[in-house]
Amino acid sequence: MPPPIPVVFEGGSSGPWRIEKITPVRGEGLPAAERLMVHEGMWMAPAGKGAWALRGVAGHPRYVEKRE
Predict the structure, then answer these.
(1) Among 34, 30, 14, which residue's Cα sits nearest to residue 22?
(2) How far apart are CA 60 and CA 68, in angstroms?
(3) Helix (H), strand (E), coil (C) string for the chain
């Protein structure tokens, strides 16, 4: 089974997706950002770039069986 792919969602002033709104579920929300950029693979945000970054992984091995 291949390892999950590291992914970073970066909110800032550039990116292909427009952020319409940010609504916190609990606690303080994320800072405002106009656009969203998605980076796959090992990636480190340059200092001072973007309003925020959410790091995670892409992959759903627990939802897929070999025969699928």
Answers:
(1) 30
(2) 12
(3) CCCCEEEEEEEECCCCEECCCCCCCCCCCCCCCCEEEEEECCCCCCCCCCCEEEEEEECCHHHCCCCC
The residue with greater pLDDT, 47 or 21, is 21
Mean pLDDT of 22-48: 84
Decide if 4 contacts 59 (C-beta within 8 A): yes
For 3, residues 6+ apart whose C-beta sits below 8 A from its C-beta are 59
Structure confidence at residue 8 (pLDDT) = 87
